[in-house]
Each structure stands twice: as structure tokens, then as C-alpha cells.
Amino acid sequence: MPKIIGGSLEEHRERTREKIFSALEELLERDAFERITFSRIATAAQVGRTAMYNHFPDKEALLVEYAMHQTAGFVDALRDDLSRIDSPPEAIRVYVRRQLELHITFHMPRQGKGATLDPDTAKRLREHVVVIENVLRTILRDGMDRGDFRGDLDIDATVRILNSLLVSQAGARRLDDSALEDFILSGLGAVPGAAGLAEPQDRSA
């Protein structure tokens, strides 16, 4: 019988899942998903393969559970931060900072050339992205209603473009974070001076 980690079976189960999630995250940072086997994950997590199968029927199910687990923690922390803010432009800054803090593996696992996830796994992974996108949609609508952002923004297109930009930045920081925030706010039509956005310089002098 495997050694119980923690004071109860439920605590043992949760700690084992955390170890497996951490192992998967570390492996995804170094390798493509299709090259990662259950055996490698079990070894990295220091758990037996039987224990792995007790928690997840296959590695695709593990990937989905990992994404949902990460999303729940991220969204809870993000909403907690946003609950203290009453300015849509400042809320955008917080959203951007939080997204940039994420590991690139959280957004989407790397895959080798020509490799694809099965349709059901891809669909379920998309669900964790939608949860985060809905937070951004709320910020954008609030900013448009208050007149802080352009009133003619296409919210769906803006969400896709903004998140794609942030995912690319999370993998390789090409811009200073503050400069990126200013760039995004300018694109949203934020009023100069809002949330620290610089006033335009008078070039006539």
C-alpha cells in the first residue's frame, strides 16, 4: 500500500495531484507535449504509474485537468486584484501584468511540427481560455460604458488580439512591461493621463 502523504486520504490525493501538475509543468517548459509520456511524468513527480492512473486515465485528461487547475487559481487571484480597482484603464494594467507573470505552458503546451491534440482535448483546453477572456471582456465593456475606451471597439476581436500579444510576450519579453501596457491602452483609446498613460507631447514647439 502506498505511503499516505498528509493527514488524510483526501489530503494525500490533493498533494499527489499537485506533484503531478508541477511535474507536467516542468516537462512542458522543456519538451513538446506529444514527447512527454506518463512514465516521464510519474518519474518527475516521484509517484508510481499506478497512482498516475488512479488520478488520470491518460495524459490528455491530465493536461485538461492541469489547465483547469491553473485557470481556477489564476482567475481567483486576478478577480481579487480587480476587486480593489475602480478604473478600467488600471484594470487593464493589472490584467496585462497578471498575464505576463504566467508560464507560457499555462496558455498552450508546445507541440512538435505536425502534431495536433485530439479535437475533444483541444475543445476542453479552449474552455480554460474562455474563462480568462470573459474577465477581459468585462473590463472592456466597463471601460466603454464609462467612456474610458473607444466606444466602437469590437470586443471579441480586441480580446483575441490582446491575448495573442500577451501570450507571445510571456514566451519572450520583447517590450518593457510598462511600455506594453501604454501601447495596449493607447490602442483601446484610453484618455491620456488615465492610469498613468502619458499625455501626448506638443510637437508644434
From TrEMBL:
Keyword Transcription: yes
Keywords linked to the UniProt accession: DNA-binding, Transcription, Transcription regulation
Occurrences of domain HTH tetR-type (ranges): 14-74
Protein name: TetR family transcriptional regulator
Pfam families named among the record's database cross-references: TetR_N (PF00440)
InterPro entries named among the record's database cross-references: Homeodomain-like_sf, HTH-type_TetR-like_transc_reg, HTH_TetR, Tet_transcr_reg_TetR-rel_C_sf
PROSITE patterns: HTH_TETR_2
GO molecular function, one term: transcription cis-regulatory region binding
DNA-binding region: 37-56
